[in-house]
Amino acid sequence: MAGKHSNYLQQGSGARVDYGLSKRWELWVQLLTGMGWIATGGDEGLLAFLLAAIPGGLLVTGGGASLLFPGEPGSTRVAALGAGIGVVYAVAMLLFEPASALLLGGGSVLSFIAAGRLAAEDAEVPPPLERPELTAATAAEVAVDETVLGLVGMVMGVFNQGDQERVGREVAVALDWLEDFDPDGSPERWHLAPDVPAEPSIGRRNSRGLDWEEFSFDSAFEPVAGVPGRDRYLEYHANRRAYAWVLRRPGNHRWLVCIHGLGMGHPALDMRLLDARHYFEDLGLNVLMPLLPFHGPRRLGKISGHGYVIGDVLNTLHAQTQAMWDIRRLLNWIRADGAESLGVLGMSLGGYTSALLAGLEEQLDCVVAAIPAVALNELGDYHASPRATRRANAAGLTVDRLERVLRPVSPLAVAPKVPKERRFIYGGLLDRFVPPEQVLKLWHHWDQPAIAWYPGAHLTFSRHPEIRRFVDRGLADSGVLAGPPG
Questions:
Q1: Where along the chain do the CATH 3.40.50.1820 domains lie?
Q2: How far apart are CA 436 and CA 424, in angstroms?
Q3: End-to-end CA distance of the chain
Q4: Is residue 322 within 8 Å of residue 219, measured between CB atoms?
Q5: CB-count exposure of residue 225 (10 Å: 0-12, 13-18, 19+)
Q6: Which residues have C-beta within 8 Å of that of residue 23, sequence separation ≥ 6?
Q7: What is the second-level CATH architecture of the domain 164-477?
Q8: Which H or E run includes 245?
Q9: pTM for the whole thing?
Q10: Which of 17, 53, 192, 246 fits a 20 to 30 Å CA distance from 362?
Q11: Contact (Cβ atoms closer than 8 angstroms) between residue 451 and residue 367
């Protein structure tokens, strides 16, 4: 995404120097703090130098890149990561070098906020939305997004595997196959109506004092016969068993299905970020948290979620199709158990999933799409590196072609069956994972239902109590709760 920093001149070397940015304290605090880490480590021996060079090198690299390449998102991500590591180091240093720890720790905190400020200024906030006031707390929220995006980009960035040519060939075949399968491109034809799963295997668990159950059952999902990528997908054996984390009380038949985001799939993390304890203990709902394909015990390798949206487009198509199959089977199980009310809340990738679910399932009391991704083709282009994007385009993996191959699982390709007054959306104005433009796409597609915006970033939405109140009121107004929220 193009940056907003102005007043730069093109130099003979090809670098861009932003003379407005060069006068900003944000850049210089990163450079000086980084050099301070390196100098301090150099005085304490080789091991100390190597350790200090990690935050120091990242801060100098990030600050320098912001000067030479203003507006490039990688610059602030590198600086935010270095600053975060510096804060952790400084806490440890308090035991034996308190003066240096306070100095470098303070510089690292300021550098963290500085990275968030620069990134926030580059964030696109489309009209009619208004850019929020950029406080230190808001900048820190953005810096958290930047730090995690830097880490995620290293381990599962879009097209990072460098196999665009192979994926491009698969996509070309898939486009022809999908045209023959369904010329109208209707997602409803693509998604088969599932049955009720056989009695799931249930294990008793506890996380942070909260008793819950682990459901598992044979997914029984198989991609459509003949579709490209089918045979490879069926080789992911760990993914063929479905899971869900469940909080329930005997005799209670009011349910909320909470769908997690990319990279989650760990019970304690899911329950914390999805606010499960609040819905279970405070609002009195049963809570079911299905595990998306490739996550948790279904993961393909060591990293939960790896493979879902890294640019291997046929895997994304089949994974999202399987997500619909598994979740709809769980909905059938809830209904067979006598559900009195049934709501769905999905966050991030789960927001994408819940929005698609709203176009396939009529018998839902409400759907909440939280910070939802909705156009994976555009989001992949947004997050891919320039080099990866060039190679993808050369292989025919353009935004338009990816939209066509992902149409069967796109929430923007199907009309919602849940009534407008029971559809809810919320988004972050400075979200660095899912930019507000994505949220607005769903809002317009859903005929502009109730929506809430908070003045913050993606990973720190829970800092904004107005969002919890918005969701609670939506659950109450839709009849998911037995009465008004407490």
A1: 164-477
A2: 15
A3: 43
A4: yes
A5: exposed
A6: none
A7: 3-Layer(aba) Sandwich (3.40)
A8: strand 241-247
A9: 0.92
A10: 246
A11: no
